Structures are given as C-alpha cells and as structure tokens.
Amino acid sequence: MDLLSITTATVSLTFTFAKITKCFLVIRDTHKSASITVTAMIAECNMISTSLSQIPSLVLKNPVALSSRLALQSNLVASFEDSLIACQLTLSVIEGELEYVVGGEQGVGSLGFKARAKFVWKEYTMITLLGQLRGQQAAIGVLVSILQT
Question: Structure pTM?
C-alpha cells in the first residue's frame, strides 16, 4: 500500500462515515428516546472521520519524506493497511445493520415504529459494533500521531 492508496482509502472511508452518521442522525432525530448507543455511534463516526481527514493533509504537506518513511517502516504500512481494512469491514457491517433497521426509509421524520423497534432489537449488535469503532479510532489515532512525528 503506497501513499496514494492510503489517501484514497481514507477519503473513501470519510465519505462512508458521513453517510452512516447521517443515518444515525435520522434515527436519533425521529426516535426522541433513542438510546445512548446512537449518540455514541455518531460521536465515534465523527471522531474517526476527523482523524482520517488528517491523513491526506499530512500526505500533501510532505509527500517525499512520508513516502521514504513508509518505505523504511514496512510495519507502518502493514498497520495502516490492517486498520483501514478493519474500518471498511466494520463500516460494511454497520451499513448492513442500518439497512435492516431502516429498510429503505429515508428522510427525517419518516422512521416508523417498525424501524424503531428493529433498532431496539439490534441494540446488542450496535453496542458490539460501537466497541469495534472505538478500537478503530484508537488505532487510527495512533497511526496519525506516528505520521505527525
């Protein structure tokens, strides 16, 4: 994985996080007694998206130095690759769960009782996914810190 691949993957993930966050916002706005899990998912998605958005800026700031650093530290490249793939997999599962919950319903105020009930039913799954997101946030935060030094 080179700098261009890392940058492309982070931009793609940032857009996916935005889409997922929007869906969680719809759930929270239409279900006034939405669980704390929904708010936590929104916060984690925003934090990861913010961390990921720093990577293209760091690449543009000094691409030559960063390329040579990645070339010398193959474990750093592998760590980025593992983290980005894990993020993609987690987002894919979240998207599938949200598709099940909202079932094609779109827009604020359109989330019906059945969708709200499905979300409550999926609460444990969402808590598990929240834990995975938190792990991803920690990993990405460490990797961004390494790139900044």
Answer: 0.81
